[in-house]
Structures are given as C-alpha cells and as structure tokens.
C-alpha cells in the first residue's frame, strides 16, 4: 500500500529536507506541502492523505489548532506532530486533540519513515515508555475538575474494560496486558477497540492520558 503524505511546516528548508528524506521510499508518496496550519483543510480536501506531518509553531494557524480542527472531522487523516521538544505542554495538547504521536525534527530519517508507516497502520508513534515519560514530565498531577471529568467518562466502562484501560495507562503492551490479565492478545485488542469506541477516543495514547487524568496511575485505584 502506498501511504499518501502531506508535510506542513513554515520552514521551507525543513520541508525540503523531509521531502528528500521521505520521498525516496517506494511506499511513501508526498502528495502536498503547506507552510501554515490554515493550508491544511484545502490540502486534505484536495489530496486525501493518509498521514499529515504537522509542525507545531507556525505564524498564522499553529499546528495544534490545525490538528484539533482536522481530527474533529469524520474520516480525518492521522496526524504526526513535528517538534523540537521531548516533553512539552504543546505536545500533550496535540495528543489530546487526537494526534497519533510526535517525532522530533532531529530524529534519524529511518525512524521518521518508520513512524509514518506505523501511524498509517493504525499504531501510535509513542512507545509505552515514551507515553509514560510524557505524562510524568508534562501532565503532572491532574487538576480536580479534569480528574472528576475523566473519572466520570471512565465510569462508562465495564470492570474488565477498566482494567485494560488502566494497564494501557501504565504503558503496557498488548502482550503484557494479555499476560497480566490472563487474556489472549486478540482479546486485548478487542477490548482496546471497544474502549476507544465507548469513550470516543482516537488511539491508546488518549486512553493513557484519560486514565492519568482520572488519577488511576497514582496507586489509588488500579483495579
């Protein structure tokens, strides 16, 4: 399958570098480029990409706003945020908006290519360790209103779904969750899909963030 890709960055040198880096792979097709978040709706409508590589800091419409608007639309492409920060409030906001993950601009080319492929296949670009690190260093302890809202949302889950959600929040892989909860890996995948549907989330990173917000990673409620 050829992955259709759009690159959005206000620096023409960065766009040129990414195009050179990604354009040499047979399964990646760069179908469009933009210099600002305000270009995104028209580019997506015209080119129907599978993935958008989105810079955060742009002069008119930043990548975070563009991501939020794009991911609110049905059938939206996946978004991978480009950033120079390892752990930043802006990255957290992008993940909450439905971005599939983030890559650093100085990431080796092969890893950026692998990230685009993973996102196109439906996998977030954050390893469990990076997910946990991001929440630890950026999110901090959730404020009470956000904690209450998150807990109310998670109340919609059945007990077994809640256990899987908490395990995702702890950064467990599907195989680790299967071992921990005495399930098969396909059953874990089914539960994760069910949780996403029930909670209206885009990916398991958002599950992890919601579980964090509810305070379920503090040792007070891991059941």
UniProtKB/TrEMBL annotation:
Species the sequence originates in = Streptomyces bikiniensis
Q: Record keywords: Glycoprotein included?
A: no
Q: Which residues carry this modification: 4-aspartylphosphate?
A: 55
Residue ranges of the HTH luxR-type domain?
A: 150-215
Q: Which PROSITE patterns match?
A: HTH_LUXR_1, HTH_LUXR_2, RESPONSE_REGULATORY
Q: Where is the Response regulatory domain?
A: 4-120
Q: What is this protein called?
A: Response regulator
Swiss-Prot/TrEMBL keywords: DNA-binding, Phosphoprotein, Transcription, Transcription regulation
Kindly give the Gene3D superfamilies that the UniProt entry links to this protein: 3.40.50.2300
């Amino acid at each position: 399958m050829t992955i259709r890709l759009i690159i959005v960055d206000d620096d023409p040198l960065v766009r040129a570098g990414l195009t050179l880096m990604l354009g040499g792979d047979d399964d990646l097709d760069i179908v469009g480029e933009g210099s600002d978040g305000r270009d995104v709706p028209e580019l997506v409508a015209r080119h129907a990409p599978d993935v958008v590589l989105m810079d955060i800091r742009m002069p008119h419409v930043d990548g975070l706003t563009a991501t939020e608007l794009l991911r609110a639309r049905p059938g939206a492409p996946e978004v991978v945020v480009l950033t120079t920060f390892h752990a930043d409030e802006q990255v957290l906001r992008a993940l909450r908006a439905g971005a599939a993950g983030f890559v650093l601009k100085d990431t080796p080319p092969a890893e950026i290519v692998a990230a685009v492929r993973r996102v196109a296949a439906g996998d977030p670009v954050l390893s469990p360790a990076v997910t946990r690190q991001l929440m630890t260093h950026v999110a901090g302890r959730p404020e009470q209103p956000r904690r209450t809202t998150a807990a109310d949302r998670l109340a919609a889950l059945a007990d077994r779904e809640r256990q899987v959600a908490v395990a995702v929040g702890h950064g467990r892989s599907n195989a680790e969750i299967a071992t921990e909860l005495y399930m098969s890996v396909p059953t874990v995948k089914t539960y994760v899909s069910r949780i996403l549907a029930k909670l209206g989330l885009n990916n398991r990173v958002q599950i992890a963030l919601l579980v964090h917000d509810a305070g379920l990673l503090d040792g007070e409620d891991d059941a």
